Amino acid sequence: MKSRIALDVSELPTYGFGPRSGPWWGAMGFMALEGMGFAIAIGAYLYLLAVNSHWPLDTPPGLAPGTAMTGLLVLSVVPNIWLNRVAHRLELRAVRIGLVLMSAIGVAALIVRGFEFLHIHTRWDTDAYGSIVWFILGLHTTHLATDLGDTIVLCVLMFTRHAQPRRFSDVTDNVFYWNFVVLAWLPLYVLLYWVPRL
Amino acid sequence: MSITGASERELRDGEIDEPELSERLARLWATPRGLIGALMSVDHKVIGRRYIVTAFVFLFAGGLLAVLMRLQLSGAQRHLIGPDLYNQIFTMHGSTMMFLFAVPVMEAFAVYLVPLMVGTRNIAFPRLNAFSYWMYLFGGCFLWIAFFLNTGPDVGWFAYVPLSSIQYDPSKRADVWAQMITFTEVAALAVSVEIVVTVLKRRAPGMTLDRIPLYVWSMLVTSFLVMFAMPSVMVASTALILDRLIGTRFFEPAAGGNVLLWQHLFWFFGHPEVYIIFIPGTGMVSAIVSTFTRRQVIGYTAVVLSLIATGFLSFGLWVHHMFVTGLPQLGAGLFTATSMLIAVPSGIQIFCWLATLWDGKPVWRTPLLFVLGFLVIFVLGGLTGVMVASVPIDTQVHDTYFVVAHFHYVLIGGAVFPLIGAVYYWFPKLTGRMLSERLGRWHFALAFIGFNVAFFPMHILGLEGMPRRVYTYLPEMGWDRLNLTSSAGALLFALSFAVMAVNVVRSLRNGDIAGDNPWGASTLEWATGSPPPPQNFSRIPLVTHRDPLWAERDVLPVVAGLSVERHEVLLTSATEAEPQTREASPEPSLWPLITAIAVTVFFIGSIFTPWAVVWGTPPIAIALTGWFWPAGTKEDEE
Fold first, then answer.
1. Count of alpha carbons within 13 Å of A13, Cβ hemisphere only?
2. ipTM exceeding 0.90?
3. Closest C-alpha to B240, from B170, B159, B184, B143
4. Of A14, A34, A131, the CB nearest to B249
5. Is the pTM of this model over 0.90?
6. N vs C: which end of chain A shows fewer Cβ within 10 Å?
7. CB distance A12–B258 less than 8 Å?
């Protein structure tokens, strides 16, 4: 078929931030389906709660590590948002600092998570309550670990010659994903630590 | 350090004329040569073709199992297949058809067609696309190899607990089923995200939301359904494996677990699954009806809204699979109402197609014949669907052949007939050759007659009380004659697929040359070569109309300004499709295959030992890092 040129896009940028970038939409997609995974897990917990005459079947998990985790994650949003801003401004030095900081926070979160597991007070094979608590905590830990891995790789990358403008957009997507991991934790915290104490 | 962007001196497509432009772009976008090159491919057409062929191989394998079952049931007390093998065979048949054929083949067509239909050069996240295919292939092989090793799952395609619990199934059979689910769901979820992003961000400029082809709309809705339905079955299959491997108690009533939790988790996915298979079928029907009636589908907006409504409603029906488990009356009433309600948007679509056929000038070629078959069979399946939506009727016919008849009418009528129509319709685009019309008509006649002879008697058998999943029955039941009829129909139906295979093989060699647009269709995939060149379009089309090739019959308006030196695609805004960025598209890579192998080792290992999580994770992490780490190409340094 013959064609005639009717539009010139040569002046368009080669990368964009947020909804103007492809990977941002990909991250949105994965957050949607992973969010659904969390919702289903919460549904399973509530279903088991509903079909059992008493709940929890064992002692609820210790409050301190879970609350510490919640505090850490909520506070981590502050440097995360700062990282988002400097990445938008393509400030390489600040972005490097931000990524190192966020990697350290990710490691700290995993350590606190270890304490959470130690204070569940029940095993996964004791009863269905233990199973679902371990499952939900495990599911969120997978997200923490995946995001930490991603952050570390991105952090190393930004110290190399590959720190091109497009990578700053990747940094903002990583920021976005961390916020999701934090946001997903809040209902889980209430569910795992406060619902059994109601 | 320079962080200011691309080099300014690269060559753009506006500076070169055809045919030099096509040659340069074809070289740039081509899959590398040789075996390694083939394994590296990230071209959506190459992957889509592999996906389609693999899905049809699984269709033939699953179909063969169906023929075996029909031979066994063709008379009372036959001894062709024993009970244990029969259990494996019906489970393999259902699992193969649902997880390795129906969903993947719909995704496969979308992988091939959607980028072409929206006018872009490759699917979004093409490496993820390659990874998805490998995961699907490995998951399918895993299931079938296990079957050949006498470890095929034998717990039905929905693997209800406690039958699939370790106490009742101490072998690895149920684990194989559960992990096959994980493989195929990972693959389907990946494709869904790709399709959503391709449709929302890679449409050709000017393709506003109300100019998106109906087939593409159907795949967008389907992809959202996959994203919100499949996590449920992944949670379920993971919980099942954990119960079986490390003794969690999700489904064990003695320890506070609950067997109905499994059914809720499974059907929360399982019912939308039906629409994940059916909605793409409706998109195919819309495309075929429009082309062969030479007019737009009447009620474009109504059809799009019906697709979206079907998507939402499909999440409110799952409990109708559980009517006999004992429900509160309000629950039964609610799920009956929603089950009946979903017939409304499907009905609206059917009236739109009928009106289009009525008002247009139908050209009765093979694709349209299959659409006709779809209309008849699907409406019959829909009618029995409304019947079983009612609790008293469902209670009577639950787990009988009536249900088997119903879902084969819905799924084969609603999805397979449109799909075969789609094969005849898009085969020229994929291969450059036409399928034989004469064999096509034979195929349709055999399929339509064979299908109805095979499945209609099952309604009556079900009403007479014949339960599903029995490997034989006593002569005193009086079910012989109807079963023999059904088996004869099944053979006829199988024969129709043999005709299709012959048609495909012969036409690949000797079929008529198709040309770019053999049907005179209106959508963008017909604006390029058959088969399309590696770059899809040498210049990205500029869309001015819902039916671009009917609106611009001689000269297509196009876009200039993209690079001819590196893989570059045009991103546009989600609603108005206004150009936004020229984004790099990843070059071919082996990492998706390596990652898929690492994940396969992890998945298979983890049905044998929980330690697979420990030793299986580092290789995946390494592979993923290799995947994302810039290789220093022009695309990476943008």
1. 11
2. yes
3. B159
4. A131
5. yes
6. C
7. no
